[in-house]
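Troubleshooting: if your tokenizer reports a length mismatch, compare against these two reference records.
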Amino acid sequence: MAYVSQEDKKKLAPEIKKVLSKYGMKGSISIRHHSTLVVTIQSGAIDFKEFGTWGQGGSDDGYIQVNTYHIENHYSGKAEKFLTELLAAMKGPNYFCDDDAMTDYFHRSHYTDINIGKWNKPYFMQKTAKKVSKKVVKASKNSRAFNGWTPEVIDGSVGSITLPTNSTISDASSISETSEQVARMTAKEQDKFVEDIVSRYPNLADTLMTKLGYSLLEHEGE
């Protein structure tokens, strides 16, 4: 009889997150009916449009229920590599399957399901960031630094993010105010803001993407 507990999910989660991070994907981990470990991919850098129903004349709904038994037959390239590694991480070192369909006998450690998007929330394909210079701009000793960002980024036209006088990023109020200003940006302002961070501070952009991805996984998996 298949069974997967919250403790099992907790043990498997680190390797699953490593695979998601490796391929620039974001997703959630959950358990269904105490027997199936489910990973739902919410967004990422892999284009799945050529696979599944929406790539084969079906509705363009951005939702695929992956057939984990025939990944190599239905997917190719980066998508196949990602799904194969993800499935292996979901199974873990203690996975076993003694199923025998001929005798109607089914016994395995647990089942695994992978979903690309949800029926009510389609998979979001993230745009690949353009290549940028690895040169990192550092704040001068005389500048009012914001976690390594120079004043021209803080006080510039992009989103008009401004720190209160004599405040630092360690101040809870400053963090809250800055987050709120980013949240109030229009879509165009957000695009410009992100592009500015990626072009000026690629290392910071990479760090933020990783931390945001892990944070989303932790919240979705609760």
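Reference record two:
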Amino acid sequence: MLNDTQVPAPRVAIAEDSGVPTRQWFRFFSNLYDFIGLGTGAVPPTSGGTGQNTYVAGDLLYADAANSLARLPVGGNHCYLGTDATNMPQWVQVAYGAYYDTTSPSFTAGTPTIIPIGTVQFERNMTLAANRVTIDQTGTYTVTFSIQLTNASANDDRFIVWLRVDGADAADTASYVSVLKKHGSDNGSALVTVNLFCQFTAGQYFELYGLSKLGYAQVNTYAASSSPAYPQSPGVILTVAQVV
């Protein structure tokens, strides 16, 4: 360990007459060289350095111990900075998905029925299969969906929609909507829009379920129009995004 007693006395010349450093000063500079880490190619944190000698654009330095620094390589696109189980920083890929469905499922009166979700717009770290969205990484998610409903009967109806997680009804996720009866040539209609915050663990899946109280209210896709021009309105739209 370097200390001030190793500094040569003032009477000791730095160099010989030949210009070669004297032995005392050579030893001192050699010890200093090793102490600040130049001999290893990187100045250690204990000497005011980082202990790193190579970097890539976007790298971050963090303390992995009281006297040590580590390098965290830059994350990929759409990542946020989080921590692992040991409270060390890590890049976490954001999970998200956007889905819709344009089929016309049939709802029997008073019968819980799965609401189909058949088309993937895009997804990351989650997967849609057989009307189920499976979550790949643990976290808190926002689940938002809208459902177009129609009623072609002469009676009002009610429609209930909720989440099932791993095959079980998720508590406090149900929403009710009244779908009015047909008036003249116009079918009754309603739009259910729900936003939920849900905590999922990796490997869990969820489904949308619905129930038509009298069997009159049904999910419906409205076709696009050219005059006046407007796009198709899918019967079901679902978006999922990880919050943390």
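Descriptive notes for reference record two:
- Helices lie at 23-35.
- The radius of gyration is 33 Å.
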